[in-house]
Write a structure and sequence with these properties.
Distance between the termini of chain A: 20 Å
Largest interface: A-B, 11 and 10 residues
Number of helices of chain B: 3
Radius of gyration of chain A: 19 Å
Number of domains of chain A: 1
Helix content of chain A: 55-70%
Strand content of chain B: under 5%
Order of helices and strands of chain A: HHHHH
Shape of chain B: elongated
Number of strands of chain A: 0
Largest sheet of chain A: none
Number of strands of chain B: 0
Structural class of chain B: mainly alpha
Order of helices and strands of chain B: HHH
Strand content of chain A: under 5%
Distance between the termini of chain B: 59 Å
Oligomer: heterodimer
């Protein structure tokens, strides 16, 4: 991989812009159930912020901020949230992912319970998509070695 | 308000047009990046500012002001990031030994 085009302008702007990209990713996830967007798109934006850091700096910098262990935990946490909400609906006596039944354990009526259930599933999808996107990028960019960049 | 918005949008579209003509007509990579980077940045900023103004021409309700602020945030983001992306692409081309265009001797 070509590593010569790093420069102070690119590094500074990427570091300054990354938190706003992450904030926008959370915005897309949080508004996913009644406007364009959702878990997959928000997770992709969150992953893109860290991929931007990997491009502007190097892979070691990203691994310092989000270790592989934490990444794997995020990856499975999202699946657990998704499947957990689905199974909770099943346990309460409705179909899989039939959020309306959640009003039995939440202090709201059925319509709001449906909205909150969709939001919970979107958060789970966002976690998993972010973790898997970052994992795919790091593994393809470095050939599975994760040894790009100097030791810090 | 609407007249001002139309002036902004028409100016922005003019800059987009010049940037596209430059992208098609300039001789080599660096001059094309120059045209695309500068023209598109200013064109996008003016067009989005015009849209933010046009959004307010029914009155200053809270929702309309919120949407205009979001449009201006997009414009600010483009204003910071687009020149940086142009800089990164141009620097990568320079590192890959893309030769700049030079004027040739036409007749002896």
């Amino acid at each position: 991989m070509i590593r010569d085009f790093e420069g102070v302008i690119i590094k500074t702007v990427c570091r300054a812009v990354t938190p706003f990209i992450q904030l926008y990713g959370l915005y897309v996830i949080a508004h996913g159930h009644y406007s364009p967007g959702g878990g997959f798109q928000g997770g992709c934006i969150l992953a893109a912020s860290l991929i931007l850091m990997a491009l502007a700096y190097d892979i070691k910098e990203v691994k310092k901020q989000l270790s592989e262990k934490l990444n794997t935990i995020f990856c499975s946490l999202g699946v657990i949230i998704y499947a957990g909400i689905g199974l909770l609906c099943l346990i309460l006596g409705a179909n899989y992912l039939d959020y309306g039944i959640l009003y039995k354990i939440l202090p709201v009526d059925a319509a709001h319970a449906r909205s909150l259930g969709i939001l919970g599933v979107e958060i789970g999808v966002g976690f998993t998509v972010m973790a898997v996107m970052i994992s795919i990028f790091l593994n393809i960019a470095s050939g599975g070695q994760h040894e790009e960049g100097e030791e810090r | 308000m609407a007249v001002l918005a139309v002036i902004f949008i028409v100016t922005g579209v003019f800059f987009f047009t010049t940037a596209t003509i430059g992208l098609l007509r300039f001789p080599d990579f660096y001059t094309r990046m120059h045209a695309a980077g500068k023209g598109d940045t200013l064109g996008a900023f003016l067009t989005l500012a015009g849209l933010a103004l046009y959004n307010l021409h029914h009155g200053f309700s809270f929702d309309a002001i919120l949407i205009s602020i979001k449009i201006l945030l997009i414009a600010l983001f483009i204003f910071i990031v687009n020149p940086t992306a142009t800089h990164a692409i141009t620097k990568a081309a320079l590192n890959c030994d893309v030769k700049p265009w030079e004027k040739k001797e036409t007749s002896k």
